[in-house]
Every structure is written in structure tokens, then in C-alpha cells.
Amino acid sequence: MRRAITPALLCAHVLILNGLFGMRDAPDEYLRKSRQFVAGEFRGTPLDYLRLYNGQGWDVEYYYEWSTVALGKGFEPSYPLAHRSISPVRAYFDQPPQFRAPYRDLPFEYPPLLTVPLLAARTLSRDFLGFTRVLALFISAAYLGALGAGYAMWRLLPPAERLSWPVVLGLSAASLLFLGTLWVTRLDVFPSLLYVLSLRAFLERRPVRSALWLAAGVLTKAYAILLAPLLALCLYRQRRHGAIVSAAALVIAVVGGVNLLLGAWAGAGYWDSFRYHASRGIQIESLYASWPLLRHLAWGTPVRIFDSHGGLDVEAAGTGLLLAASSVVPMLVAGAIYLAFLRLPGDPKAPTATSRLLPPAVLLVFAFVVTFKVLSPQFLIWLMPLIFLWRPRRPAAFFSLFLFMLLLTQLLVPNFYFLLEHAHPAGILLVTARNVALVTLCGWVAWDWLAGSGSRPIPPASSSVS
């Protein structure tokens, strides 16, 4: 019976990701039902409500439109072009189908490797619903791959410093439900997979392979570069200076080479994707936006909320200073984590090296999510499944709070985002509660890591760790 638990939980992951969240209506049907729902006229079974809820993932429609235009494929007759006037690719809707190169002919704000699953999913599908199912299948495979790499890391951990594997899978499956449709309406599973693969390869003493995975991760979402200094410091503590040079040269060559090639080919369109993110202001869900929002709630001070870069930004008195701080604080926090890791006591070659490297690898992502000027809800996917491999001192309390934080995020996006958009007190309190939970969890990871790193004995190199 116990042997069936792991396969059953893995099947649950696939069912949740590719089954429930892939269940949606065609765009024209969704828009009709959505209008009925707003008017209070929608009637249906719980399954109908689930399909309506899953249809809120607007990013999937953008991905579909973008990849359709890039490949020069026509839209199916039922696709409601008239309702997509706000689409970033609307300028191409009335033109005859023809291939358009990403970045050069068609704007795209994401790093280059994220074009691969989108173009592949559109190539393998005939219509919008088929596209959503293929993309959900890709996301399922990527997350199962991340779990597989996580299992290899889990086996390296001392038994006293890890949860049981069925518990890890159970928490992982629960996170899919608590975070909701964001799993399949965003592409952040792919950088999470590459981050875990890079860490796993490093722990298996394969720095070159780790560097390749890390370079791929940076070309998928730039946050993966946070792992590079941590791994370099680990090699430095192990006195493997040659490995530092070769791995760093490989990452620079791959990332720099791909960017230079795309920049030469696509020209200004490619560099615009960098300027797009550099020009972002303070996003309404970020920690920096909490101060002007709470001041508005408590004292009615003016606050301006406006559409920007596919989300909502905040402007108020003092936000210029907050924006400047948001450029410095993430670097200072990351530097503090690197310094703390460098000063850790003990032999970095001992069998506890895995358990010593895992907490700062988790903390770096956590701290970046908390301190960056943009806190999009899909950024939380970067934490999974890595965070479930780490055992806090009070796992039940920690992971209960973690799942509650994911639930608050799902309530905020997509359910009650309109409240935040209009600075409604309920919306401000909801995002504040989510951010307080997020900061608490980040501090919890830091405290457990720093408090426990100097007290755990280092076993001899011959002792078992599995």
C-alpha cells in the first residue's frame, strides 16, 4: 500500500495541472458566460463554474495570439478577435498570415528560451483549446521533471533534515490547488525546473553541467543568476578554484553569446525587451507599495493606480524614494546571504554539504521575491518544489502558513484584483495580509538557517546520508 502512495501523488499532480486547470471554454463561449455572470444571470453546474473560473487566465490568450502571429498561422473562425483589442499583437490581426520573427518583427517581453514552449505548443495545436491543453501538458512535464530532480537532492539530505517523500509530494500537490490557475496561465515552471536542475548537478559534483543548466535558467528568467555567486562561493570553500573559472566562463559565454546573437539578429526589438522591465515602476502587489496603500487606507492620502507593463503600478508621495530603494535593497540582501554562507562553520565537503547549500538557495529566491519592485503572483512558483525539500524546525506550522499565503495570492489574483485596482480597503488588506505572510516565511527560513547552521555537528565523510 505504501508503495502506491508516490505514484498516486504524481498522478494527482498531472490530474490537477493538466486536467482541472486545463478545463476551459472557447474564448467566445467564455466571454458570453462572463457577461452573464457579471449581470447575475449565469446558471450552471459546479463544473460550469469551474470552467468559467479557469477561463480567467488572460495570459494564455496572449500566448496563443503571440505564437499564432509569430508562426503565421490563421486564427480559427470562432476566435473572438473583436474582443481582443487590448492585445499587444492587435496590429497584426488584419494582416495576411506570414511568419514574423520574435523580437525582430513581433514584440515579446520575456527572455528567449520562453519562446520555445509557446511556439511548440502552437505548432502542435489547431485551436485555442488545443493550445491550452498542450501548454498545460508541457507545464506538467516541466514540474514533474523538477520533482524528479528534487528527489535526487532529497536523497542526499540526512534523514533527520528532510521530510518524508510522500509528505513532500503531498505538500507539492496541495500547492497546485492553493495557488490555482496561475500554474498553467504563466510560464514560471520552466525557470524553476532549470534552477533545481542546476542545483542538483552541482550537488552531484558536476559543475560544468550545473553551469549549463544555470545559463539556460538565466535565458528563461533572469532571477536564476542569483544561484551563481552561491555556487561559486561553495567551490571557493572547497578550494576548487579551477572549477570556478571554467563554470563562470561557460555561463558568461552561453548567456552572453545568445544575447549578442539575438541582439545582432533582432536589433532594437530584442534590447527593448530589457528596457521594458528596467522601466517598470512600483507594482501594486510589491512590498514597496504597501506603505502608500496603507497610508491611503488609514489617512486618505492620495494614491494613483494605473496600468503599466501588463499590471498595476502605484504612485504617491515618496514613491520615488521607494523606487530607488528597490534597486538597491535586493542586492544588499543577496550580498548578506552570500556573506553569511561564506562565514558558515564546518567542512563544505562533508556529507552535510547538501543540507547547508539548500537553505540559502531557497532563501535567495524568497528574498528576491520579497524585495524586488515587482511581486507578480507567479513569482511564487519559483519556490516550488525546492522549498518542500527543506525541513524547518516547525514544519507543520511553516507549511500551513505557506499554503495559506498561496491561498491569499489566489484570492487576490484573479478573484479580487479589481478591489485592489480601485484601492478598496478589502483589496488593500488582502494584499497586505499576503505580504505579511510572505515576509514572515522569508524571515523564518533565514532564522532557521542562521540559527541552525552553526549548531549541527558535521559527521565524518564516511557516514551515510541517505
Give an overview in words.
The protein is mainly α and about 475 residues long. The chain has a domain at about 1-140. It has helices at about 5-20, 25-40, 45-55, 60-70, 115-125, 130-155, 165-180, 180-185, 190-205, 205-220, 225-235, 240-265, 270-280, 290-300, 320-340, 355-370, 385-390, 395-415, 415-420, 425-455, and strands at about 305-310, 310-315. It has a two-stranded antiparallel sheet with strand order 1-2. Strand 1 (about 305-310) and strand 2 (about 310-315) form a beta hairpin. Helix 4 (about 60-70) crosses helix 5 and helix 7 (about 165-180) packs parallel to helix 18 (about 395-415). The longest helix is centred in the first third of the chain and has 29 residues, at about 130-155. The protein starts with a helix and ends in a 13-residue tail after the last helix.
Helix and strand pattern: HHHHHHHHHHHHHHEEHHHHHH
Q: Classify the helix fraction into a percent range.
A: 55-70%
Number of E strands = 2
Poorly predicted segments: 454-466
- Beta-strand portion reads under 5%
Quickly count the helices. Answer: 20
Can you give the mean pLDDT?
Answer: 86
Described by strand count, sense and barrel closure, the largest sheet is: 2 strands, antiparallel
Any idea what the radius of gyration is?
Answer: 23 Å
Strand order of the largest sheet: 1-2
Distance from N terminus to C terminus (CA atoms, Å) equals 22 Å
The geometry reads as globular
Global structural class: mainly alpha
